[in-house]
Please model this.
Amino acid sequence: MELHQDAVAVIETGRWFMQRRMLSQPMNEEFALVPRSRILLVDEDLEDLEYHARVLEGQGHDVFASGSYDRGAELAEAGDYDFVMVSQGSPAFEGKVVLERLKESRQENRLLSPTPWDTPVLVLTHCLDMGCYLEAMQLGAVDYVEKPVRPTEMRRILRAHLQPRPVG
Model:
């Protein structure tokens, strides 16, 4: 399906206004229950990357953002993050490269030093796709949600999946 340029401009403008309205929602004390975390955010859609980074930073998290799936996979594998958020990309699921690298890294690390936790990974998408959902879950994702994610929903997701790591 091909969209006329005016229609694309209206869609993009509407998306911008919706994201701006969601960011302006007042924060309540509920987000204080979510521990400050190091979050890796990977999305090739730069508007979505910026929006979700602002939401997370507004909730007090340290955000490490990548606009490339390959670079995001490298960062995920090499970094020590409390949570990873990756965009699905298109229905071809380009974002799965991040999940695949994390899964490989987890398997290698378990052999060297078993731990009771894995870094939770959330997959974000503009269009829900059952095949991508199933593949994401098989690769270890903890959730699969439609974007943009509202700040209140972001807090709910983080609160459900973040837990303090043991010291030492």
